[in-house]
Amino acid sequence: MSLLRHACIVLLMALLTLGVGSQAVAQSADPNREISTSVGAANADTWRQVRSGEVDANYRDSRHDSNYNLINAAGQTWREIRNHWVTPFGLIALGGMIAMIVLFYVIFGRKELDERPTGRKLFRWSALERSLHWSVATLFIILALSGLNILYGKFVFRSLFGDAVWGAMISASKVSHNYLGPLFGILLLIILAKFLKHNLPKKHDLAWFKKGGGLIGKGHPDAGFANAGEKVWYWLLATAGVAVIISGLVLNFPNFDQTRDTMMWANVIHAVAALGLTAVALGHIYIGTIGTEGSLEGMKTGYVDEAWAKEHHNLWYEEVKDQAVDAESLDQSTSDDGGKPAPSQPG
């Protein structure tokens, strides 16, 4: 009898297990039935009420003091703006700038100096200023590349290298972007404050624009320590760059009671401003390197040839031309000081 009783219990448990399993399979095969058993009256009218906010707190999300619905229409609006406007804008801005640079180089080539370099040097950038410039430039490039990878990388690298490599790339991009962003913001504010006096608008800046920086008409337009084009880049950094910093901090530190709407708009502002700055930065990099003879030398050594200064910054040249030193004596002074640069002169 005992053996029979145990056999009956085992058989009963097996039948119950089969019943539960078949019910689970039936539910997984029929999504509507699964929804009806797990949610209850989750019909179309209920979801419309959830979306419009007409239901009680049971249908709201679980965050502290949250007033958002479980379904938030603003999130879909943000998604459409990001995918249909921001992403194409970035491709157009970056692709358009690259095309303009290539076209400009093909038509005009590298801007050579009208007069041969004299070999006499003028002090232009201190070691501190060059360090600030290269630090900000390096951080800008890292942030630009990591940001572009976050926005566009999945369409390129994921299909090329697979999920494992793509996962490592996006993780590295996110970490570098989040941690280097605040440092970039601090250094950018320092560099903006330091160079403000050189970038205040002047009357002769209008003439510089009318002559296209020297491309239109004969002769070179007047320019002080900074020409009008450099001033435009400065004020773009002071406006769009600051917008990137502020919006980036809002996104980077979501624990200061920002609402979900604030985070979404910060994301849009951050992306648009950063993409625009990156596009303009390509032009700035081109002009400062292969585009113009003698420009890169100043930011590498701190000194520029007086022929370059006279041609591109004639008003500043008139102020400092009596401080020019021979390149040979400058090299000798550097050698005698154990590799230290010659004493700085006022710029």
TrEMBL record:
Cofactor dependency? heme
Q: Which residues cross the membrane?
A: 89-110, 131-152, 179-196, 232-253, 265-287
Cross-referenced Gene3D superfamilies: Transmembrane di-heme cytochromes, Chain C
Which Pfam families does the record associate with it?
Answer: Ni_hydr_CYTB
Enzyme Commission numbers on file = 1.17.1.9
Question: Principal localization?
Answer: membrane
Keyword Transport in annotation = yes
Report keywords, A-Z. Cell membrane, Electron transport, Heme, Iron, Membrane, Metal-binding, Oxidoreductase, Signal, Transmembrane, Transmembrane helix, Transport
Q: Which domain of life is it from?
A: Bacteria
Region: Disordered; residue ranges are 327-347
Signal peptide location: 1-26
InterPro entries xref list: Cyt_b561_bac/Ni-Hgenase, Di-haem_cyt_TM, FDH_cytochrome_b556_subunit, Formate_DH_gsu
Q: Cytochrome b561 bacterial/Ni-hydrogenase domain location, by residue?
A: 124-302
Q: What is the membrane topology listed in the Swiss-Prot or TrEMBL record?
A: Multi-pass membrane protein
Cellular location(s): Cell membrane
Identify a single GO molecular function assigned to this protein.
formate dehydrogenase (NAD+) activity
Q: What class of enzyme is it?
A: oxidoreductase
Family affiliation? Belongs to the formate dehydrogenase gamma subunit family.
Looking up PANTHER family in the UniProt record yields: FORMATE DEHYDROGENASE GAMMA SUBUNIT, FORMATE DEHYDROGENASE, NITRATE-INDUCIBLE, CYTOCHROME B556 FDN SUBUNIT
| Name of the protein this chain belongs to | Formate dehydrogenase subunit gamma
Q: Whose protein is this, by species? A: Franzmannia qiaohouensis
